[in-house]
Structures are given as C-alpha cells and as structure tokens.
Amino acid sequence: MGGMASQQGSSQTTIHPTLSQVIEAMESLWPLSLQAGWDASGIVAGRPEQIIERIHWAVDPVQAVADEAVGYDADLLITHHPLFLKPVTSVAATTFKGKVVHTLVENSCALITAHTNADSAVGGVSDVLAEILGLENIVPLAAAEDGLVEEGIGRVGTLQHAMQLEDFAARVYSAMPAVAGGVRVAGDPNGIVSKIAITGGAGDSLFDFVREHEADVYITADLRHHPASEAREQAMMSGDRPYLIDVSHFASEWLWLPTGANALERALADEGYTVTTAVSAINTDPWDFILTSGDDTKTITTETE
C-alpha cells in the first residue's frame, strides 16, 4: 500500500457518461433501496449534467484521498464510506469535512458514496471477501428485507477443505492489505473450521445470525471488548464456536474496490460509455503503529501477592 493510484482501465473512445448516467449504472449494481435506514449513501456533490471521464475509488473520503483524486484529474470520486453519515450545519473549509467538499467542488470532482447498499448487493463487500478466502455455497448472513435471496448484510460459506483455525487465520491475514493492527484471533489455534461467516466492516451486532448459521468462525472488524467477550463466553457453553477473527475495518472493505470499479466500468460499457478508473492505494486505516506483548518485557500478573 503506497500513495500511488493503480490504473484499472483505459479510455479508447470519446463517448463518456454524464454524472446522472453514472448514478443510473450504480443504481443497477448497488440499489439505494438496499442501504440501512441510518445510512447516507448516494450523491454528495456534483452536477447531473457533468461529463465523467475519470473515476477515482477509495474507502474513506478523507483529505488525502480528495487530494489524490484531484491530482489524478478525476471527475468523480466514489468512496465506500459516507462523508456526512451524521448531519452537519456547515461545509465551511475551516472544518475538515468542509475542506474535503471544497477541494472536490473547486476542482470539478463530484462525490458519490456506496456504503451499506454496496455491502448488501450481490458482488458486494462480503461477497468479495468470501470469494478471496475460497468459500463455497455462499448465502447472506442476514438477508435483506424485500430483496433478492442473494442480497443482505454479510455472507456465510464453507471451505472446500476443513482446516485448523491458525492456518485459516493466516489465510485471512495474507489476503488483507497491510495495516498496523494486523489480525486478532480468539479460539483454539488447532480447532478445525469449515463454515465461515463474514461481515466486511463492523459487524458485532450480527452475532445472533452467526449463531443461527452455526458458523465455526466469524470474521468482522472493530470487535469491541464486551461483544467479543460475551460471544466467546456464550460459545464456550455450546461447543466453543464461533471462533472470532477481528480484522481492520479499512482493510476488509478496501478489497472490494477493484471489483466495484470493474463492475461499474462494465455496466457503463454495456450502455456504450467509456470511463477510466483508478483505485486509491492510500492506507486510510486510522492506526499508525501497535505495541504487542512481544515488544517489551511487560507482563500481567494474575497471582495474588
């Protein structure tokens, strides 16, 4: 992961879509009807008639990403995470979110976000994770209401061959972009696992669905102490499953970007339009470094003096 953008396509024609036509294509792939009620996906900035030739993709709409998109001469920045998930009363450039908006608008770069709608849709974040990890017989972890059978938050699937938790965790680690936090695992390293539940991003509210599917392992991000502790305590009362694998929120969702970019490029091509796309390689995980038990001689003493 460096600071350079990786090219995902090239333009051979001069027939480019408008922003409204890009939005139509995105709606066919990741319908806004699939987003959670609390979410804020969709267009944030941009004129419907604007011609879109270059599209930049990223997980987070942070300043470094906005600067990168402008440096790439992008007409559109698509991010997974919303910029305004919580309401604001100002977009003045004296605020960090306002500065992002000004950077993009002043350089004629529109902004669209595809969050939980891209999580739930077929080919979304968790589907990509499941495929990268080699899962088969994939179904939604929590099916979408009034959606297709394949739609919903998270995925559950099976490994082609059962393996030890330690080896499977190593597979997860090797699949993720490098971040400071690495991968945390709870469970018997030698435990045999076959059925895997996955939620890209934060998924500690979905433990009931994980248990309903009788998954051996649950992979998600941002596992907090109490939900993780309670999940493990409950698991140890009924066969020690599911084990837990906690990954970086950013890393788990970055993996979807190349797939999303390619899907949108193909959808536009089917309508006769050409765009050039690039995926940001900026690491927007908020953590810079980590200290572990092997970094010094500090220990926790549990014996009573």
Strand proportion, as a percent range, falls in 15-25%
Q: Calculate Rg over CA atoms.
A: 21 Å
CATH architecture of the largest domain: 3-Layer(aba) Sandwich
- The helix/strand class is alpha/beta
Mean of pLDDT: 91
Question: What is the β-strand count?
Answer: 12
**What CATH first level of the largest domain would be assigned?**
Alpha Beta
How are the strands of the biggest sheet laid out side by side? 1-12-3-4-5-2
What is the general shape? globular
Instruction: Give helix % range.
Output: 25-40%
CATH topology of the largest domain: Udp-n-acetylmuramoylalanyl-d-glutamate--2,6- Diaminopimelate Ligase, Chain: A, domain 1
Number of domains: 2
Q: pLDDT under 50 segments (min length 5)?
A: 1-7, 299-305
Number of helices: 10
The biggest beta sheet is recorded as: 6 strands, mixed
Give the CATH H-level superfamily of the largest domain: NIF3 (NGG1p interacting factor 3)-like
Order of helices and strands: EHEEHEHEHHEEHEEHEHEHHE
Distance between the termini: 48 Å
Pfam families: DUF34_NIF3
Family: Belongs to the GTP cyclohydrolase I type 2/NIF3 family.
GO molecular function, one term: metal ion binding
Subunit structure: Homohexamer.
